[in-house]
Amino acid sequence: MIQIFGWIGLGLLVLSFSLLNTKWIKYFTIVDIIATAFLLAHSIAIKDIPFIISNILIITFLSIKHKNGGVK
User: Fold this and answer.
1) How much of the chain, in percent, has pLDDT values that exceed 90?
2) Which residues are CB-neighbours of 65 under 8 A, at least 6 positions away?
3) What confidence tens digit (pLDDT) does each residue in 24-66 have?
4) How far, in Å, CA of 63 to CA of 37, rounded?
5) What are phi and psi of 21, to 5 degrees?
6) Distances in Å between the alpha carbon of 16 and those of 8, 11, 45?
7) Model confidence, pTM
8) What phi, psi does 34 have (nearest 5°)?
9) Residue 68: what are its φ and ψ, rounded to 5°?
10) Amino acid 46: pLDDT
11) Per-residue 3-state assignment (H helix, E strand, C coil) for 53-66
12) pLDDT reading at 16 higher than 90
């Protein structure tokens, strides 16, 4: 059951990077933060410490980026 979080995170991650090539680029950081949150939940569930740390860092950096105006 927990694998669904990983699959949703992966799908959203692919979607977020696809947005970089469209007129909806402004939604990249939001979708990427949500995707990373799903991947973080998955990594916590499977107790994968390196991915927990990397996902926390990614969410932190993306949140700062979003606060400063996101991708332009």
Assistant:
1) 81
2) 29, 71
3) 998 999 999 999 999 999 999 999 999 999 999 999 999 999 8
4) 12
5) -105, 20
6) 12, 9, 23
7) 0.89
8) -65, -45
9) -90, 15
10) 96
11) HHHHHHHHHHHHHH
12) yes
